[in-house]
Specification:
The complex is a heterotetramer, with two copies of chain A (about 170 residues) and two copies of chain B (about 70 residues). Chain A has four helices and eight strands; from the N terminus they run αβαββαβββαββ. Chain A has about 170 residues and is of the alpha+beta class. Chain B has about 70 residues and is α+β, with helices and mostly antiparallel strands. The chains are: A alpha+beta (about 170), B alpha+beta (about 70).
Chain lengths: ~170, ~70, ~170, ~70
């Protein structure tokens, strides 16, 4: 199978020997369509050669563009602006902090122009236990929503409106 | 030094990046108050050299300062 | 692509028109190898024809057999016994309760003989918001661990030991 | 009526299913106490006709009663 829509990050290519306690982070912003299950297939292949094999617990989250705007109107497009360099840096810092006690973290986040139904974000965490996997995944997602410089603009009837804040948990 | 604005702030000001004359003790707060029609400061966060910082941090001549409207990622 | 290892449940085949507020439940116990990403591919195809299209949030959990027993010894196999009829019934009840406020729930749970690395359980929840998707997924997983009659037996050096209770959250 | 044992309980008793003579007011507790070498009751749950029930529920002649050791699914 060929999964052209899920490129691997430079970090993933390197494959340096790392300490057993150091989670493997694979983080990337994408300008092109994100196929989350294709990403997970590729990621799971990499997990198989972790020391100890595939971790026992995996938690995933996939977020998609809604069909309606915050005002309930049919959405034409969603634009995702980011602060280049700072977004990558904050994501890396966020992942390092939240991934403690896990084996591996995968994050893919879209930037640019998206359509209703398109995937915005994929977060996946592998760990030896379900608790750390679930908690890290949730903390990462909340961090992406509030602590990494991304801004959404909703396009309705040709008019763009910046989204201030996120939908409630 | 460089000043950057993003998203709604950029569109409101009509520019996204400017060089700004540096002076001793200059802070993000001082630059913010010189922008025409600034948004309420409590809704805006400051980043210096890609890290979050306070409005009162003294700036260096080669700093990159950015004003960030409320984040909406994920 | 052919995904022989992920059969669809009778519920999923039926496709009766259901109330919009009624989550779509697709629950199954499997005696054969469980390929979780194949199951998710098939499930996502079904989600696309939900009223309103693909829900905006999806939370998944995958659980695998560890390579070591509870006593830290290399595990040869894990056996999963269940109480036929009651396990299916309890799973259905559990899913109905926990799925409130979500759009769709997928559960696959292995029974029978498993090897280290094999997938035991897949839980996936689709909802309009991340909170209900994540919370339902966690509640379902905890319910599977404590409220649906499954019993694990670990095989080490040809000796089987029944597992009493679960690893901590 | 039918009585079922699972997992460790089944192996300890040496049987997994038996028919049991019914009598008026019979409860799971009474059957449990007649099993040779029963496990501590506090670690065991009772199911009647595939639903969790109490040790003191009066049983009917056509009930399926099961004793369940600690669950370890997922």
């Amino acid at each position: 199978m060929n999964w052209p829509s899920c490129r691997r990050s430079v970090e993933a290519e390197r494959r340096e020997p790392v300490e057993a306690t150091m989670p493997r982070l694979d983080l990337q912003l994408l300008t092109t369509t994100l196929d989350p299950l294709a990403c997970l297939v590729a990621w799971q292949r990499q997990l198989a050669d972790l020391p100890g094999g595939m971790p026992a617990a995996e938690a995933h989250f996939i977020g998609r563009v809604r069909g309606v705007s915050g005002q309930g109107l049919p959405l034409e497009a969603l634009e995702l602006e980011h602060y280049p360099a700072m977004a990558e840096r904050r994501l890396q810092e966020l992942a390092k902090v939240t991934a403690q006690g896990t084996a591996a973290v995968l994050v893919r986040h879209r930037i640019g122009q998206l359509r209703p139904g398109d995937v915005i974000v994929l977060v996946a965490v592998a760990a030896d236990r379900r608790g750390p996997a679930q908690r890290c995944g949730q903390a990462l997602l909340e961090g992406l929503k509030h602590e990494v410089p991304f801004w959404k603009r909703e396009w309705v009837n040709g008019v763009g409106t910046w989204v201030e804040g996120n939908t409630p948990l | 030094m460089r000043v950057k604005l993003f998203a709604g702030l950029r569109e409101r000001a009509g520019w996204g990046e400017r060089t700004w004359p540096h002076s001793a003790g200059l802070t993000p707060h001082q630059i913010w108050s010189q922008l025409p029609d600034p948004a309420p400061a409590h809704s805006v966060r400051v980043a210096i050299n890609h890290s979050f910082a306070s409005f009162e941090t003294p700036l260096n001549p080669d700093d990159e300062l950015a004003f960030l409207p409320p984040i909406s990622g994920g």
